[in-house]
Structure formats: structure tokens, C-alpha cells
Amino acid sequence: MQLQDRIDAFVKLGDFLRQFSNEDIQKDHNIEHNNIFFDGFKHQLKLAKEHNGWFTPENIRFSIKSWSDALTLKNLTTWLKPYNINQLNPRTVAIIMAGNIPLVGFHDFLSVLITGHSVLVKQSSNDKQLLPFLAKYLEYVEPQFKGHIVFTEEKVEHFDAVIATGSNNTARYFEYYFKNKPAIIRNNRNSVAILTGNETENDLKNLSEDIFRYYGLGCRNVSKLFVPHGYDFQAFFEAIYHWHPIMDSAKYANNYDYNKAVYLMSEFDMLENGFFMIKEDKSFASPIATLFYETYHDISQLKEEISAKKDQIQCIVANGFSENEVPFGATQKPKLWDYADDVDSVEFLLAI
User: What is the pLDDT of residues 155-167, one digit of tens each?
Assistant: First the structure.
């Protein structure tokens, strides 16, 4: 199979997904194999929601729209242009996926197949309804994929390299278990935002998307703010208030009530607005319904501190703070070339 064949197959997958990216799902009769797959994928969306309470229809749609927007001929061609992919010794690459947000492991899946390797996927039990169905669609639009996509619920065996994502504890296990294989091992990371006090209302509204999308469960969600000493959070609370319907989710509301009770019983200082809390804390990983913050006096010193802890940070949301910063509101809309942990997975796959 040639690279262009693989690109064309994923473009067709993007066209298929586009039908499900809006609340009003409309069947497009021009999509290949739609009579076979359209109703089936609607059912898988229903199963994903029923299986995982965090996977609301809105968040699933958001993920699907992100991938349908990414899987265009222009984007795929731009992404792959810097690499020499045709000279490749095909291998079998195992992917051990997380399950915190819908289709969270799709980029690794895409990267392995687009480079010409075979993929062995072990999914999280929290996110196992969607990807196997989409893999079957790929095999229909490009039959040469058949035999190169395998899903397993057992111990992963008979592979040449691995990409594994998990918690800090499981990452240590992965590092030991896969020590004799070429590997990308990912652990816990969080995203931060740097505020100066000069942000517009629109900036702060966009930042709320980085905080609340997927209930804050993704590594690209902002879980920590750095604000200047004496920062007034009034404008921030006003700008994020449109997210208050998030309390309609029982899982989120239960976490809010629990964490608020813990803070109150522990007599921690915190600010809250009825659906969200802000607490001063040096940690990066904040609980659901909570955002940690630290104050700073000197921006240059803050840059040094952030740089020293870069292995704990996925995204830095800011305006004029650093070269690799992400604009307000864009953390959950990464480009194909925005690699997790800043590790180029395509480069890794071409070298094995």
C-alpha cells in the first residue's frame, strides 16, 4: 500500500465522521459504504455514552468534530510532508491507550497506520466502543488495511515497538515491562495558563473552554493558573459563568460537592461560584471542579520555574509568554503535528 492510499483512506474516514459532528446528525448519501456503517456508528455513539458517564453526547461530538476537521487531504499532506515515509521496514506497533476522553488514542492509531506499520491496540475499558468500529470502516474503504489492525483485551504480545499511555504509576511499570523494546511511554501531565491581568473578556471566555471541556479530564485541559500577585478573580468568574450548566451532570456535581466538603472540613482557603472552585496550591493536577493557582511577582522568574517543570506540563496557555504557547481556547483543538509530550511519534515510528 502506498502512502497516498493510506492518506486517501483517512480522508474518507474524516468525511464519514463529519456526519456525526453536529447535534443534528444528517446522513450523506455520497459517503462510501454509508448504508453499512451509518446506523451502526450511531449505535456505537449511544453505547459509548451509556458505558462511560463522562462521555456525554456533547463531548463525543466535540471529539468527532475535531478529528473530522483534522482528517482532510490538506492537513494530512502538510503533516507528513517533512518526513520520508516511503522507505520503511514495516513493523507491528502496540498501542496501550488511555480512556479519559473520547478517542484519546486516535492520534497514535493514525500515526502507526499512516507510516505503513501494523497496529496492535489494547484499549482502556473506559473508551472501547468507537475506535474498533472506525477501524472496520477503514478496512472497507481501503481493503489493504485488513490484517494490519488488531485489537486485543489480553496481554500484548508479538510486537516490535510500543506506545503506552497511563498514570505515573503505570508508566513506571511500562518502562520496566517494555525496557527491551523501542518505546514511547507517557505519564501524567497537566496544562497551565499564564494570566497577566490584561486579558479581555473574550480571552477569559476562551480559557474556560480549556478548563471545562471534557470536564477537565484531559492532559490538555488547564488545571493550574499562574496569576500576578494581587490578581482579582472577579472578571475570571464572570467570564466562565456560562459553563454553570455543567452541574447538570451528576458525576461532575458529585465531585464538586465532595471536593468542596473536603476543602471546607480542612479549612482550606478557596474561592467558589456554585459550580467551580479555585484554590491556591503548588500542585499541577487539580481535582474535578477545582482549579489550582499560584501567584507570581516576576515574569522572568516564572519562565524559569515553568521551564524547570516542563516535564510535568502538556500545554502552556498564554499570550506572549513563550514560543510554544497555545492561544486561549485552543488546547483541545491540536493540529496533527502537535505531539503529546512534545515527542514526535512519526519520527519515532520511522526509526524503528
Answer: 999 999 999 999 8
